[in-house]
Specification:
The chain is an all-alpha fold. Among the domains are: 171 residues, Serine Threonine Protein Phosphatase 5, Tetratricopeptide repeat; 57 residues, no CATH class; 93 residues, Alpha Horseshoe (Serine Threonine Protein Phosphatase 5, Tetratricopeptide repeat).
C-alpha cells in the first residue's frame, strides 16, 4: 500500500510538470481506479474548461492531450462503468463517427480513382500531330499513325492547352493579390486530395475497438438516437466486414432490425432484415420481423425477395403464407387459396394455415363466377373445424367459425357458436413480441383485450333483431350484458 502511495505521488508530480504527458495521465488514472476513485479519474482525463482557448490554430504545437485516442477510450469506459450513458456517448461518438466518415471517403476515392496521364505522356502523344504536319503534307503520303492515335493526340493537345490556361490564371491571381507565385509542374498522379488522419486510426482493426462500436450502438439506441445508431451500424458492417467476428456481426444485424421497429421508413434497414431472413430462412419469427419492417415501406423489394425465396426454397412455408396474404389483401381469393393450400401440404397441423385456407375458401365461395359454391363452402368449413380442433376449442376459433356461418347466411348455426363464445371466460395474455422488440409491457391496454365476448354479442344481437327472428328484447339484453360500460 505504501509503494502504491509513493508511486501515486511520483506520477502526480510528473503530471504537474508535464501536463501534456498522456502516459502519465493514464498511469495516474489506473492508480485511481484501483482505489475506486472514479470521480477523481474523470477529472484527470476530462478536457479542461478552457480547452477551446488553449488550441491556437496558427501554432503547430501538436495535438492536445485531451484529443488523444487512448484518453478518450479510457474516459468513455469509466463513464460506461458508472452508468453515465449520455456522457459515454458524448465522449466517444464524435471520434468514432469522424473516423468512420473519413474511412468511407477514403475507400470511395480509392474505388473510383482513375489513372491519369502524366505531362510527359501527353507531350509524346502530341508529337504525332507535329510529325504529321511537317512530313506528310510535303510528301503527300498517307499518315502512318492510325485514326485512334490521331484522336488520342488531339485530346492530349486540348488537355495541355487547358492546363496551360489554368496555370496562367493562377499566376495572374497571385500577382493581383501580391503573393509570390510558384509554378507546380508535378504530374497529375502526384497531386491529390490532402489526406487527413482519422482520430482513431485503429478503430476497425483492434478487437477492443470493435467491442466499443457494439457498446456505442446499444447506448445510442437506449438514448433513442436511432438514426445515428443506424449510420454507425451500417458503416461498421461495410468497413469492418473482414475484422468483425461472426458474433459481433450478428449482434449488429440484430440491432439494425431493432432500430427498424422504432423508426418509420428507414432507408437501408432492408439489408438488416434481409440478412436476418437469409440466416434463418425457415423461421417464422425471422419472417415476421422482415414483414413487419417491409410493410412500412415500398413493397417492390419485398415482392422480388419473396419471388427469389419461393424459387429457391419450395419447401419454405413462411414466404408461401406471406404470398397468400398479399393476394388476400388484393381480394384475389383464388390465388390466395392456392398458396395457402401449398403451405397446408407442407404443414397440415398448423392451426394458422388451416384458418387461412378456410377463410380464403369461404371468401371464394361468395364470388359470382364460381359454379360449385356449396362444395367450396363445405371445404372452407372443414378447414375451420380443423382449426378449432388444433387450437383446443378456444374462444378465437369458435368465434371464427361462428363468423364464417354468419357470413354464408347459416344464421341459426352461427348463433349457436356465438353463444358458445359468450360462455367461455378468456384470460388476457401478453401480446407476442418479435425478437429484439423489447420486454416493455404495454400499459395502455385495458383488461379484457383478449376477450371476444363483445364482438360475439354484437353479432348475435344483429341476428336476434332480424325480421325472421324478431327477438328485439333479447338483442337489447345481450347488448346490455356484454357491450355496456
Amino acid at each position: 500500500m505504501l509503494i502504491v502511495f509513493f508511486f501515486f505521488v511520483i506520477v502526480s508530480t510528473a503530471l504537474n510538470e508535464h501536463e501534456d504527458d498522456v502516459v502519465a495521465r493514464l498511469e495516474l488514472v489506473s492508480l485511481l481506479l484501483e482505489e475506486k476513485k472514479e470521480d477523481e479519474a474523470i477529472c484527470v482525463l476530462a478536457p479542461p474548461q478552457d480547452s477551446e482557448l488553449r488550441v491556437d490554430p496558427t501554432l503547430d504545437t501538436g495535438k492536445p492531450w485531451w484529443t488523444d485516442e487512448k484518453v478518450n477510450i479510457k474516459l468513455s469506459y469509466i463513464y460506461k462503468s458508472k452508468g453515465l450513458t449520455e456522457s459515454f456517448v458524448e465522449t466517444i461518438f464524435p471520434l468514432v463517427s469522424e473516423t468512420l466518415f473519413l474511412k468511407t471517403i477514403q475507400r470511395k476515392r480509392i474505388g473510383r480513382k482513375k489513372k491519369k496521364l502524366s505531362i510527359k505522356v501527353l507531350h509524346e502523344r502530341v508529337q504525332v500531330l507535329n510529325e504529321l504536319n511537317s512530313d506528310t503534307d510535303l510528301l503527300k503520303f498517307r499518315p502512318f499513325a492510325s485514326d485512334a492515335d490521331i484522336a488520342k493526340a488531339v485530346r492530349a493537345k486540348k488537355l495541355l492547352e487547358k492546363q496551360e490556361t489554368e496555370r496562367e490564371e493562377k499566376r495572374a491571381a497571385a500577382l493581383a493579390a501580391g503573393v509570390e507565385w510558384q509554378s507546380d509542374n508535378s504530374d497529375d498522379e502526384s497531386r491529390g486530395h490532402a489526406y487527413r488522419e482519422p482520430p482513431m486510426p485503429n478503430l476497425l482493426k483492434d478487437g477492443e475497438h470493435l467491442t466499443l462500436i457494439v457498446d456505442l450502438s446499444k447506448a445510442l439506441i437506449s438514448l433513442q438516437r436511432f438514426r445515428e445508431a443506424l449510420e454507425l451500424i451500417n458503416s461498421s458492417l461495410k468497413l469492418a466486414k473482414n475484422t468483425l467476428t461472426i458474433e459481433m456481426q450478428e449482434e449488429l444485424w440484430s440491432l439494425g432490425v431493432q432500430i427498424a421497429y422504432n423508426i418509420d421508413g428507414p432507408a437501408n434497414v432492408w439489408y438488416c432484415a434481409r440478412h436476418i431472413v437469409n440466416q434463418n430462412p425457415y423461421s417464422f419469427a425471422a419472417w415476421n420481423c422482415y414483414y413487419k419492417i417491409m410493410s412500412r415501406s415500398r413493397l417492390d423489394k419485398l415482392k422480388k425477395f419473396l419471388h427469389e425465396n419461393l424459387s429457391k426454397r419450395e419447401d419454405c412455408v413462411p414466404p408461401i403464407v406471406i404470398k397468400g396474404h398479399q393476394h388476400t389483401m388484393h381480394r384475389e381469393h383464388q390465388e390466395a387459396a392456392s398458396y395457402y393450400l401449398k403451405a397446408y401440404k407442407l404443414m397440415p397441423d398448423n392451426f394458422l394455415i388451416n384458418l387461412c385456407v378456410g377463410s380464403a375458401l369461404i371468401n371464394l365461395a361468395l364470388g359470382l363466377r364460381l359454379d360449385n359454391k356449396n362444395q367450396c363452402v363445405l371445404q372452407g368449413l372443414a378447414f375451420l373445424y380443423n382449426n378449432l380442433r388444433l387450437s383446443g376449442n378456444n374462444q378465437e376459433a369458435l368465434y371464427n367459425l361462428a363468423r364464417a356461418f354468419h357470413h354464408v347466411g347459416l344464421i341459426s348455426i352461427a348463433a349457436t357458436y356465438y353463444e358458445k363464445v359468450l360462455g367461455i371466460h378468456q384470460k388476457d395474455h401478453p401480446i407476442p413480441k418479435l425478437p429484439n422488440e423489447g420486454t416493455k409491457v404495454n400499459s395502455d391496454l385495458k383488461p379484457g383485450y383478449c376477450d371476444l365476448k363483445r364482438e360475439a354479442a354484437y353479432n348475435l344481437h344483429l341476428i336476434y333483431i332480424y325480421k325472421s327472428s324478431g327477438s328485439v328484447d333479447l338483442a337489447r339484453q345481450v347488448l346490455k350484458d356484454y357491450c355496456s360500460l
